[in-house]
Amino acid sequence: MKCTPRRIESEERAYAFASGRILLDARKQVKVTQEELARRTHTTKSYISKIENGVITPSVGAFYRLINALGLRVKVVKP
Predict the structure, then answer these.
(1) Residue 58 CA to its chain's centroid (Å)
(2) Angle at which helices 5-29 and 60-69 cross, to 10°
(3) How many beta carbons lie within 10 A of that of residue 26, not counting itself?
């Protein structure tokens, strides 16, 4: 399948949405507010909100810091 600029942009939006949903679901599961998560990770509530709403995609390092701050871990498995 050819990787066109339009396809790449579409995939990036999908990744932003998916990572945001993962973070939102994880945060709600452990009953932590955006403000508290921002405090724990030395970021801002606005930054957390933008990730959860799929506006931005966090770097891999930032994503792991956010998940770790929620007391969770990421597990990578082969399909």
Answers:
(1) 6
(2) 10
(3) 18
Q: Any idea of the CA torsion for 40, 46, 52, 58, to the nearest 10 degrees?
A: -70
Task: Calculate Rg over the CA atoms of the chain.
Answer: 14
Return d(Cα 52, Cα 70) in angstroms, integer.
14
Res. 30 pLDDT band, cuts 50 70 90 = very high
Separation CA 45–CA 26 (nearest Å): 16
Separation of alpha carbons 61 and 66, rounded Å: 9
Tens digit of each residue's pLDDT (9 = 90 or more) over 12-26? 999 999 989 999 999
User: Which spans in 1-79 are helix H?
Assistant: 5-29, 34-41, 45-52, 60-69
Name the pTM for this structure.
0.84
